[in-house]
Every structure is written in C-alpha cells, then in structure tokens.
Amino acid sequence: MDQKKRYCIFAAHYLPHLGGIERYVYNMSEKLKERGDEVLIVTSRVGDLSRYEKINGIPVYRVECYELLEGRYPVLKYNRHTRKIFRVLKQKHFDMVIINARFYVHSTAAALFARMNKIPCIVLEHGSSHLTVHHPVWDFIGAVFEHVHTFILKRICKNFYGTCEACNEWLRHFHIKSKGVIYNGINVDEVNQSLRVGGNFREKYGITPEDKVIVFTGRLLKEKGLPSLLDAVERMNRSGEKVYLFVAGSGDLEEEVEQRKSRYIIPLGYIQHEEIFRLLAESDIYCLPSVSEAFCGGVLEAVACRCYIITTSQGGSKELISSEELGMIIDRNDADTVYHALKNCLENWQECKRAADKAYDKLMNHFTWDIIIDQVRNLKL
C-alpha cells in the first residue's frame, strides 16, 4: 500500500471562483484525497468569501488580498491573519508544496514558506504568454513586473513544471528550464456521472438531432477569440448554412454576446459544471479560436464528450490534437479563418466524427487524472 502523503497546494484563486487553474487544482486535490493523501489548499480571500472552509472535505484557507484588476489579480496582504495561516501551515509537516501559476505574489510567499521549512516545492506553469488587460502601456508595465517577480521566484524554488509543453516553452522566455510536464487532465468519473442524466439543451431551443451545434465554454474574454467565432457563425447562417452556437460562461464579453443573441447564437451565461458536460454531449463541434492559452480544460472536456475540436496552435491543445486525424488546428483566429474551418468541418462531417473518436481514445490513454496523479505522487525532488 502506498504511504500516505501530505500536500499543501497554493493557488491565487479557488472555488467558488471558476477558471482553468481552479479546475486543475480541484481535480488534483480530489484525486490525491482519493488516494488517501492529506491535502490543504491556500488561496485568496476575494469578495466576501470565508477565511476558512472545507470543500468536499478538503481544508481551504484564504489569505487577505488587494483585489487588483477587479479581483483578477489578487495581491497577498502580509497581515496578522496571513501570518496566522502560515503558522498553522508550519505545524502540518507537509511532504510537498505545490504552487499553481508563477506570476502571483501569492506564489512567492508559498515558495518562501517551503524553503524556510525545508519542504520540497514545485511551481506549475499555467501560462503561455504575458497577462494582458488590452492596454499597451499597462501590458508593458505588467510584463516588466512579471519578469522581476519571476527573477525573484526562480531563486527561491528551482523545480518548475509546465502543464503542457507550450508552458515549458514559455518558461524558457524567463530563462527557466522546466523539469517536465504535469498535464491538465480529465476526471473520467466526473464526466460519466454527469452524463448519466441527459441534457435538454437541444429540446429547449428547438434544435433537431440533425442540426449541427457548435459550442464555446469558458471565460468570455477577447483573447479567447469569441468575437471571431460569433462573426463566423453569423456569416454561415446568412449564407444558408444553418448552424447553432451555444456560448456558456461569464466574463468581459457577456454584454456583447447577449447583444448578438439570435435564433442561432444562444448565450447560456454561467451554468454548473455538470451541466457543461451535458451541453458538450449534445454538441457536435467545440471551437476555441484562442490567442492566449495553456492547456485548456474545455478542450479536454469536449473531447471526453466526443466533440470535434477546432482550435489554434496556442497552448497545449495541439499536444492532444496532434494531427488532422484528431481534430483541426487553425493558424489564425480571424473570422474568415474560423468560418472556413467550420465550413470544411460540415462538408466532411463523417471524417470529423471519426477524428472525434480517435481524439477520445488518445485522451483516455494519456490525459486522465488517474495517470497524472501517479506522476505527481512519484516525483523525486
């Protein structure tokens, strides 16, 4: 029987805040707990969230923070409450500290804690480009800050891993040599449990089984390429190629998506995660024309529900969709490119169905959390 281990996982955001890193940390912590390990999560107290709670039996401590960029970039406050949390952590005698995302002040504090207490520590890289607020001056200042912050962090912790090869390539931008990849993955049990209850999205919106449905899930941000996808779907329907687009998620472009709502463009807003799987299972094509990505959990979830994937070469999706036999990687994310990708897909639908099945097989053999957790538990630092 494997020896029980104790893990402290740091992440700037965690549930109920939703995002790719949050889902990554959730799945990792759940699988470690399933193996009999003890897990504790340290995150930021954004809004009116409690300072401490248990989520699915896992303790979650939240440190006070300054909520920059409307909470998108929390900066840890090193106050009395934060010091108290770190004193509690010191008594836990962890076997490993796992830090998610390099560019937060939270991450440096975690690395210092690990070093001062002689605990093995790893930093997981989740990005493949600089954080952007779509303003050239502020983006430049942010990039400078990120380089300075990373310069400090890499002198405290030497063990960096990417969540895909694209993340490792991005680490080289900061003169960091990764020690390997700890991929994002899919929780097969969660998918299967969600799909035991069928969805009713097609029925609710009067979409027949023969109609083709495109889906977009995740944060509604400009860098995800959502405006191009909306333009492409509108163009297809104007030209008589009837397709539907479900948009599930929240974010900066919520208002724009709502304004472009039509018979064929259907905003769903935020929906529960189990509903996401049911939505994907009722959809045909998952389209993510993103210009900034790590290894998108939405792509993994869509493949697990046998959707055909159209996405860009940004981030780690191309490591799953590694050939035309598995899906489509587009080289640009403008509306014209997205339109022709969707059109080609509909014209060769039987080939696309076979590609979706092959991508599913690859996912099950390489990108499940059971496989990933074996790797995490066997790390030698």
Structure overview:
This protein is of the alpha/beta class. The mean pLDDT is 93. The radius of gyration is 21 Å and the shape is globular. The protein has two domains: 6-182, Rossmann fold; 188-366, Rossmann fold (3-Layer(aba) Sandwich), CATH 3.40.50.2000. Helix content is 42%, strand content 20%. Strands 1, 2, 3, 4, 5, 6, 7 and 8 form an eight-stranded mixed β-sheet that branches. A six-stranded parallel β-sheet has the order 11-10-9-12-13-14, sandwiched between helices.
List SSEs in N-to-C order: EHEEEEHEHEHEHHHEHEHEHEHEHEHHH
* CATH architecture term of the largest domain: 3-Layer(aba) Sandwich
Low-pLDDT windows of residues: none
Number of helices: 15
Show the helix and strand layout.
Blueprint: E1 6-11, H1 20-34, E2 38-45, E3 52-55, E4 58-68, E5 73-76, H2 80-90, E6 96-100, H3 105-116, E7 121-125, H4 136-156, E8 160-162, H5 165-172, H6 188-195, H7 201-204, E9 212-217, H8 226-238, E10 243-248, H9 254-259, E11 265-269, H10 273-281, E12 285-288, H11 297-304, E13 308-312, H12 317-320, E14 328-330, H13 335-347, H14 349-366, H15 369-377
Parallel strand pairs: 1-2, 1-6, 2-4, 6-7, 7-8, 9-10, 9-12, 10-11, 12-13, 13-14
Antiparallel strand pairs: 3-4, 4-5
Helix pairs in contact: 1-15, 3-4, 6-10, 8-13
Give a short synopsis of this structure.
The protein contains 15 helices and 14 strands. The chain has helices spanning 20-34, 80-90, 105-116, 136-156, 165-172, 188-195, 201-204, 226-238, 254-259, 273-281, 297-304, 317-320, 335-347, 349-366, 369-377, and strands spanning 6-11, 38-45, 52-55, 58-68, 73-76, 96-100, 121-125, 160-162, 212-217, 243-248, 265-269, 285-288, 308-312, 328-330.
